[in-house]
């Protein structure tokens, strides 16, 4: 059963507030209404429960987000022992009518912050707890040390490290207009509709102009910093785009102050700042394994010039939590400009905090890590601010730019990176958002095609067809009828039609692509070979093997003239021709072409590559059709040997080849 909740959206807060009280269903009671109203000045969403089991089930379902809990004394006596050990539960407040009755049992549980008879002190305590939680929730990513060389596989790196670095580069190149601010303010009014305090803050933000003195607004005690940090921490693409103007303004403000305060400073002027932060056990283990490597704070980063202030913060943090306290001791070279930082004492809302504020995605080299208490829950980590002259960071940055530079338009780079590292769902979220944001027809085409590609990757071919058809519809309105982009779109659409078995539509699309390409390309162009190859595959699926063979031979002819003898496309053509010959019963010719494909793949591919398994499987299938079961078994066993290295034991492809081996063993 879904809990009732007070508040429209999670993006304004990065935690849950749960209120458990068996009498709270009496919502016509003025006391409850007043309590709700006061809590809504601190939090945006409140989940209400009258039943312990339902409340516990909800908490169990929210392991990815932290939970603050208010409970009546009666139900709390039952619920607290059940939820206290759960790592997602941060702090518990007992709200009751008879304080003395519940104080004794409540003292046994460290996460119970206190017993209250009035909602006002709970609101104050909750406000401070949320501020501390937000401070500890700054997301950290890690990169293990290397020799500085380019790394072949981007998946070796923390994806958030790369996302945030690319995001930063993108956001700092966009010129924002007043319309972006207006859209953001409208969004905030929708999210904060029931929070009168934050709506007043929003009025002030609008009146004073949020783009004036962004550091003051970021440090002001309102929803802005929490919303921004939540968006960056969770990679909420929609919200990041909405807040893009503020991210850039804040970064530019820090950079301007940095230039003013540290212009001309040399390395000899290095100084130290401090940050106390609670980190999870898993993040601490990553940190320990990454000594000597890089650490990035993926949000804007607040630090102090006072060691004692930071140390006291983490001592308080670990007192009532299962976090590990880390005192980051940061050595700062003012001459480094890649990540601006500034003393914001004169421009912050609370100047007494002596804050040094770092721009988004500050990157440090991890130095010495040492324990500074006896129980192992308080550690000091030495960090050194690093810049683009760091060999490892430079190599990583260049590799990311290599992978994304072919698409020069801002947000396109991020989507391309997400696809490269396999984060398909995040890429999908980005492209949906961009599609809804843009009025540019050419951008719409690109986003629709990217969504089509993503749906193919997800094997949702019917949905892919819809996106490709919409993209093609726009292209046909704005492009000449013989434009190469139209040929490419007809080609993509034909491939998707083939995947869903719509062979007539597939054939028509590929023939349209071929017709355009024949008109605008040289006779031996690779795109013509691709069209002939795709048409051959469709005819093969339709059972028209004569036309399939004819098309594949045309593709092969072009590829033999234009490609090296061991090119993978040649192997594909040989493979496809072999399949046709097998289908028409000309087994000797089928074996000959499959063996040609296999020889190329053996020369250019690793020993366990899936394409080798495809060749072995095809040859085994031909020998099976010929009745040579011994040779068929040998090739099927080679397929099994390869697939066992890359697929789980219950994968259908593995099961299929096992079935083939069992069948030939019966002969």
Could you give a quick summary of the protein structure above?
This protein folds into four domains: 5-136, Rossmann fold, CATH 3.40.50.2300; 141-397, Toxin ADP-ribosyltransferase, Chain A, domain 1 (Alpha-Beta Complex), CATH 3.90.176.10; 479-562, Tetratricopeptide repeat domain (Serine Threonine Protein Phosphatase 5, Tetratricopeptide repeat, Alpha Horseshoe), CATH 1.25.40.10; 569-667, Serine Threonine Protein Phosphatase 5, Tetratricopeptide repeat. The chain is of the alpha/beta class and 667 residues long.
What distinguishing features does this structure have?
Rossmann fold; disordered N terminus; Serine Threonine Protein Phosphatase 5, Tetratricopeptide repeat; 4 domains; alpha/beta; 15 strands; 667 residues; 28 helices; 58% helix; six-stranded mixed sheet
Description:
This protein has 667 residues and is α/β, with parallel strands linked by helices. It folds into four domains: 5-136, Rossmann fold (3-Layer(aba) Sandwich); 141-397, Toxin ADP-ribosyltransferase, Chain A, domain 1, CATH 3.90.176.10; 479-562, Alpha Horseshoe (Serine Threonine Protein Phosphatase 5, Tetratricopeptide repeat), CATH 1.25.40.10; 569-667, Alpha Horseshoe (Serine Threonine Protein Phosphatase 5, Tetratricopeptide repeat), CATH 1.25.40.10. Helix content is 58%, strand content 13%. It has 28 helices and 15 strands. It has a six-stranded mixed β-sheet with strand order 1-3-2-4-5-6, with helices on both faces. It has a six-stranded mixed β-sheet with strand order 7-9-14-15-11-8. Helix 17 runs antiparallel to helix 18, helix 20 packs parallel to helix 22 and helix 25 (587-604) packs antiparallel against helix 26 (610-626). The model is unreliable at 1-10 and 148-153 (pLDDT under 50).
């Amino acid at each position: 059963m879904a809990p009732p909740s007070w508040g429209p959206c999670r993006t304004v807060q990065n935690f849950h507030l749960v209120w458990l009280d068996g009498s709270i269903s009496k919502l016509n009671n003025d006391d409850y209404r007043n309590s709700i109203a006061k809590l809504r000045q601190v939090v945006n969403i409140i989940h209400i429960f009258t039943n312990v089991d339902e409340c516990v089930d909800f908490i169990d379902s929210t392991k990815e987000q932290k939970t603050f809990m208010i409970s009546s004394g009666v139900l709390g006596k039952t619920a607290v022992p059940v939820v206290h050990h759960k790592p997602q539960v941060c702090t518990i407040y007992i709200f009751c009518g008879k304080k003395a009755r519940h104080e004794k049992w409540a003292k046994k549980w460290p996460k119970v912050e206190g017993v209250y008879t009035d909602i006002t002190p709970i609101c104050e305590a909750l406000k401070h707890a949320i501020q501390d939680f937000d401070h500890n929730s700054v997301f950290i990513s890690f990169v293990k040390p290397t020799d500085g060389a380019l790394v072949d596989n981007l998946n070796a790196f923390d994806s958030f490290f790369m996302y945030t670095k690319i995001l930063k580069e993108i956001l700092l190149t966009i010129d924002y207009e007043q319309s972006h601010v207006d859209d953001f303010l409208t969004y905030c009014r929708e999210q904060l509709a029931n929070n009168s305090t934050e709506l007043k803050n929003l009025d002030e933000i609008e009146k004073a102009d949020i783009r004036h003195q962004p550091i003051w607004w970021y440090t002001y005690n309102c929803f802005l910093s929490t919303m921004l940090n939540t968006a960056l921490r969770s990679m909420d693409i929609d919200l990041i785009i909405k807040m893009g103007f503020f991210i850039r303004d804040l970064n530019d403000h820090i950079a301007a102050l940095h230039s003013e305060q540290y212009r001309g400073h040399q390395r000899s002027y290095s100084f130290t700042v401090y940050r106390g932060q609670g980190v999870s056990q898993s993040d601490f283990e990553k940190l320990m394994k990454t000594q000597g490597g890089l650490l990035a704070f993926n949000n804007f980063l607040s630090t102090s010039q006072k060691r004692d202030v930071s140390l006291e913060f983490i001592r308080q943090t670990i007192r009532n939590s299962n976090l590990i306290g880390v005192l980051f001791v940061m050595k700062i070279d003012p001459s480094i400009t890649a990540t601006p930082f500034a003393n914001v004492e004169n421009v912050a809302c609370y100047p007494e905090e002596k804050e040094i504020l770092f721009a988004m995605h500050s990157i440090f080299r991890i130095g010495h890590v040492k324990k500074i208490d006896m129980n192992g829950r308080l550690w000091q980590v030495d960090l050194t601010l690093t810049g683009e002259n760091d060999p490892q960071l430079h190599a990583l940055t260049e590799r990311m730019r290599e992978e994304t530079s072919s698409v020069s338009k801002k947000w396109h780079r991020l989507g391309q990176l997400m696809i490269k590292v396999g984060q398909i769902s995040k890429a999908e979220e980005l492209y949906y958002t961009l599609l809804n944001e843009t009025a540019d027809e050419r951008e719409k085409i690109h986003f629709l095609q990217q969504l089509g590609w993503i749906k193919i990757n997800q094997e949702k071919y019917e949905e892919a067809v819809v996106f490709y058809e919409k993209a093609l519809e726009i292209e046909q309105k704005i492009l000449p009828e013989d434009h190469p982009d139209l040929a490419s779109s007809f080609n993509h659409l034909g491939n998707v039609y083939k995947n869903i078995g719509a062979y007539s539509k597939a054939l028509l699309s590929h023939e349209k692509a071929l017709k355009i390409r024949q008109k605008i390309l040289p006779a031996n162009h690779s795109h013509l070979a691709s069209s002939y190859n795709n048409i051959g595959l469709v005819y093969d699926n339709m059972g028209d093997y004569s036309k399939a063979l004819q098309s594949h031979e045309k593709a092969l002819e072009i590829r033999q003239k234009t490609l090296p003898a061991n090119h993978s496309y040649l192997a594909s053509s040989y493979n496809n021709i072999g399949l046709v010959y097998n289908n028409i019963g000309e087994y000797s010719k089928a074996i000959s072409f499959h063996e040609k494909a296999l020889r190329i793949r053996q020369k250019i591919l690793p020993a366990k590559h899936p394409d080798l398994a495809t060749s072995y499987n095809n040859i085994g299938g031909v020998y099976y059709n010929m009745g040579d079961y011994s040779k068929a078994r040998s090739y099927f066993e080679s397929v099994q040997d390869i697939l066992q290295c890359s697929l789980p034991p219950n994968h259908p492809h593995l099961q299929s080849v096992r079935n083939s081996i069992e069948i030939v063993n019966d002969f």
